[in-house]
Write a structure and sequence with these properties.
CATH topology: Pnp Oxidase, Chain A
Distance between the termini: 26 Å
Strand order of the largest sheet: 2-1-5-8-9-4-3
CATH architecture: Roll
Strand content: 35-45%
Shape: globular
Order of helices and strands: HEEEEHEHEEEE
Radius of gyration: 16 Å
């Protein structure tokens, strides 16, 4: 009974958050991958660090395990098309990068154009967090796009994920 209460309370509190949405990109062994994520945050001020969590169920996770650098792209409210592409499609069957504008960044990580901004970070550590793996990143490069409002989870809650979480 206590566990059911905890689960329900957790879902009520955490499920009500309207977090920003991001696209994470990776490149390794001649492969590129990217996916939509809602689990990303600043993890330290000094030194600057980011924490990005990737689902073990998707193609990007597989490529990210081999990557030295990941790209974190901050989506704006007008980036619903990118959220759909990187959230509903899977690299298992779609070349997502053939359907958007991008360029090579540090360590060949794809840097997507037309977003609010991006940060490339060197992977310092990977931590198993359950159905996701947390990647601790040391920022090594960044760029600012526009100053639009962030795209949030509520704005894309109707997407049909390419893979289950």
């Amino acid at each position: 009974m206590v566990m059911n209460h905890l689960h329900a309370t957790f879902e009520q509190l955490v499920g009500g958050l309207d977090t920003p949405m991001y696209v994470v990109t990776a490149a390794a062994a001649g492969e590129r991958a990217g996916c939509l994520v809602g689990f990303a945050t600043q993890a330290s001020i000094d030194p600057q660090r980011l924490l990005v969590l990737l689902s073990k169920a998707n193609d990007t996770y597989r490529v990210a395990l081999q990557a030295d650098v990941l790209g974190l792209h901050f989506l704006g409210a007008d980036n619903v098309d990118l959220a759909q592409l990187f959230g509903e499609e899977s690299g298992d069957w779609t070349d997502k990068f053939a359907r958007c504008r991008w360029q090579d960044g540090p360590s060949d990580v794809p840097v997507i154009s037309g977003v609010r901004g991006w940060i490339a970070g060197r992977v310092l550590e990977r931590i198993d967090a359950g159905d996701h793996v947390a990647h601790l990143l040391d920022p090594i490069d960044a760029g600012v796009g526009d100053d639009s409002e962030p795209l949030t989870l509520r704005q894309v809650s109707d997407l049909d994920p390419g893979h289950p979480a």
